[in-house]
Automatic annotation (TrEMBL):
Protein name: Type II secretion system protein H
UniProt-listed InterPro entries: Pilin-like, T2SS_GspH
Organism: Xylophilus rhododendri
Subcellular location, principal: membrane
Cross-referenced Gene3D superfamilies: minor pseudopilin epsh domain (3.55.40.10)
C-alpha cells in the first residue's frame, strides 16, 4: 500500500478565522476615529453650505439687475422676513431667504429660502434692506450706495461662521474676505 503525501491537518490560529475580540477592537478603533473626524466634517459641511448660500445670493442679485435691464423697469430683491420662514431660526437671525418682484405689477419672479441652519443676520445700508434696480438708470434709486449682507450659520457647539457680501452702487457683488465692505 502506498501512502499519500497529504499535508497534515492544521489547527493553527490562521485557519480558524477572526476572533470576536479582534472584531470588537477593530470596531472600537473605527468608532474613536469617527468621533475625532466628525466635528471637522460638520464644520467643513457648514462652511460649504454657507459658501453656496453666499454664491446663490450673489447670483440672484446679478439676475435681479439683468431682469431690470431686460424688462426696462424696476425689479426688487426683498428679503423674506422671519414670520414667513418655515424653520425655526436662532437668535440674531433677520431673514431666511429672498423674493424677487417686478415692481410695476408686483409679480413674483423668483423665491428662494436658505437651507436649514443658514440665515441672513445683517443687511447694512442707508437706503433700506431691499435691493432695487431699474432698467434705465441705476443711480436714480435713492440709497442704493454700498450695501453689505452677512450670511451666518450656527454650529452645534454654538460657534458661528459667516460670509459677508458687498454690493457696489452699480450692483456688482463680491464676497469679502473679512471685515467691512469698502467702496
Amino acid at each position: 500500500m502506498q501512502t499519500q503525501n497529504r499535508p497534515p491537518c492544521r489547527s493553527s490560529k490562521a485557519s480558524r478565522g477572526v476572533l470576536l475580540i479582534e472584531i470588537l477592537v477593530a470596531l472600537a478603533i473605527v468608532a474613536v476615529l469617527g468621533c475625532l473626524v466628525l466635528p471637522a466634517f460638520q464644520q467643513m459641511l457648514r462652511e460649504y453650505r454657507l459658501r453656496v448660500a453666499a454664491q446663490d445670493l450673489s447670483s440672484q442679485i446679478a439676475w435681479t439687475r439683468s431682469e431690470a435691464l431686460r424688462r426696462s423697469g424696476r425689479v426688487t430683491l426683498r428679503f423674506t422676513p422671519l414670520s414667513d420662514c418655515p424653520n425655526g431660526l436662532p437668535a440674531g437671525a433677520k431673514y431666511c431667504g429672498w423674493r424677487i418682484y417686478q415692481e410695476a405689477d408686483g409679480q413674483l419672479l423668483h423665491q428662494h429660502l436658505l437651507p436649514r441652519g443658514i440665515h441672513i443676520s445683517e443687511v447694512n445700508s442707508a437706503g433700506g434692506d431691499d435691493v432695487n434696480f431699474t432698467g434705465s438708470d441705476m443711480d436714480a434709486i435713492p440709497g442704493l450706495g454700498i450695501k453689505s449682507f452677512v450670511l451666518s450659520a450656527e454650529g452645534a457647539s454654538g460657534d458661528r461662521a459667516s460670509r459677508i457680501l458687498c454690493m457696489s452702487s452699480g450692483g456688482r457683488v463680491r464676497i469679502a474676505a473679512a471685515g467691512e465692505c469698502k467702496a
